[in-house]
Amino acid sequence: MTASAWICLALPLASTAAITAAGNRISRRGAGYLSTATTFGSFAAAIAAFVRMLGETAHERAHATTSWTWLSAGPYHFGLTLLTDQLSVMMMLIVTGVGGLIIAYSIGYMDGEDEERRYFAYMSLFVFSMLLLVQSGTLLLLLAGWGMVGLSSYLLIGFHQDRPSAVAAAKKAFVMNAFGDATLVLALFLLVQHTGRLDYAGVFATSPRGGTVANLIALGLLGGAVAKSAQIPLHTWLPDAMEGPTPVSALIHAATMVTAGVYLIARTHVLFENAWFVEDLAAALGAATLLMAGLIALVQVDIKRVIAYSTMSQIGYMFVGAAAGAYPSGMFHLMTHAFFKALLFLAAGIAIHALSGEQDIRKMRGLGRTMPHTRTVFLIGCLALVGIPPFAGFFSKDSIIAATLSRGAFGDVLFACCIAGALLTGVYTFRLFFTVFTKEGDAQPHLHGKREGPFSMVAVVTVLAGLSVVGGFLQFGPVWTPLTTWLSPVAQPFAQASSWQEAAASAAAVAAGALGIWVAYAAYVKGTIRVPKALPLLERKFYWDVFYDLAFYNVADFVARRLRTVFELPLIVGSIGEIRAGFTFGAGEASRAQNGLVRSYALALAAGVAVLAVVFLTTR
Amino acid sequence: MHGPDVAWYLVLAGMLFVTGALGVLVRRSPLIILLSVEIMLNGANLALIAFARHYGHEDGQVFAIAVMAIAASEVVVGLGLIVAMGRRDIELDVDKLRTLRG
Question: Is pTM beyond 0.80 here?
Answer without folding.
Answer: no
